[in-house]
Amino acid sequence: MASRTQTLLISTVIFFVGFTAVVSLTKYLEHNRIGLPESYVDEDLDLQGKKLNGFALGAEGLIADVYWIRALQYVGDKVINADSRSLNIENLQSLNPRLLYPLLDNATDLDPKFSAVFSYGATVLPAINMHEAVALTEKGILHNPDEWRLYQYLGYIYWRSQDYEKAGEVYERGSRIIGAPAFMRLMAARMRTDGGARNTAREIYSQMLDQDGDDQTREIARQRLFEIESLDELDSINSVLKSFQSRNGRCPANLAEILPQLKQLTTQSRQFFHTDNNGRFLDRSGSPYVLVSETCSVTATKNSTQSPLE
After folding, report:
1. 0.85 exceeded by pTM
2. Beta carbons within 8 Å of 149's beta carbon, 6+ residues apart
């Protein structure tokens, strides 16, 4: 009996000593955890689905859908978790979406006719990695040589990279495909004359918005058109401000002073400006226009040296 009691006592002591050691070690490791770069947050693909191509018993299209949905969720989660104030859809590298291309690449290897994946990649990847955007779209053209929209997307990518000569060549190639709209030949000529003009951008995004395509691509085009409209508004407001300053020798104190002139401004048969419940003028993103007194100009960016146009 004494021997059993002694054994139990020793076991209990060992248990508590071990438990205390584990707790202490856990706290130490938590406190001294090595900080990993942000690139390690995403786990690498645990399965390269494209290796199943030809061995999936006809289920390649279904597997491609899985990768496609996963790609949409992946980017969506990145955007949701990002700081909306610093998010720039023109440059998404800060989100570090390094798995997007592998996901889209797997989907299109499994289903080379998956047009929605190619169009989405062509509109999103240029803001992340231009080379990957070109590679994915050229892959689409290789497997779908009669699809003129892929040439449109490739031309768009080169236009984004300001390679207007290459963009013009691609639009020209696409214009020769049966069924291609006249827009393709017009854009081929436009690239060689004023590829960097704002009107060119407006035509490109308007075409992307009007044509049949996936909702994600159309939404990106819609947002870009909003940005262009805001730039048009800024230019017009600043023009009125400069005229006011020239006539009066000073900058207006607020928007109300130039309101009559602003109401007369129109663009493409549409009245400029949107207002909130407080009567403040907003850009298309919903941000109030702000007056910079030092330069007598307007911007939609707020900071402590600017006063709102109320």
Report:
1. no
2. 115, 119, 211, 213
Looking only at Cα atoms, what is the longest distance across the chain? Answer: 108
Structure tokens at 176: 């020769």
SS3 for 234-297 is HHHHHHHHHHHHHHHCCCCCCHHHHHHHHHCCEECCEECCEECCCCCEECCCCCECEEECCCCE
Per-residue pLDDT tens digits for 8-65: 566 666 655 655 654 565 555 455 544 444 444 455 555 566 666 665 667 888 888 9
Q: What is the dihedral of CA 90, 94, 95, 98, to 10 degrees?
A: 100
Segment (H or E) for 299: strand 297-299
- How does pLDDT run across 95-145, given as a tens digit for each residue? 888 899 999 999 999 999 999 999 999 989 999 999 999 999 999 999 999
Distance CA 153, CA 121 (A): 9
Taking the C-alpha atoms of residue 224 and residue 216, their distance in angstroms, rounded to an integer, is 13
Residue in the block written with tokens 């494209």 = 50
Query: 256-261: which pairs have CB atoms within 8 A and are 24 or more residues apart?
Result: 256/310
pLDDT of residue 87: 67
DSSP letter at 99 equals T
Residue 12 has a pLDDT of 61
**Beta-carbon count within 10 A of 6 CB:** 10
Q: Which long-range contacts does 67-71 make (Cβ < 8 Å, 24+ apart)? A: 67/103, 67/104, 67/106, 67/107, 67/110, 68/103, 68/104, 68/107, 68/114, 68/116, 68/117, 70/103, 71/100, 71/103, 71/104, 71/107, 71/117, 71/120
Q: What is the pLDDT of residue 104?
A: 94
Mean pLDDT, residues 283-301: 79
Helix/strand/coil for 145: coil
User: How many CA within 13 A on the CB side of residue 8?
Assistant: 5
Residue 39 main-chain phi, psi, to 5 deg: -65, -20
- Among 17-31, 186-200, 268-282, name the one with the lowest average pLDDT: 17-31
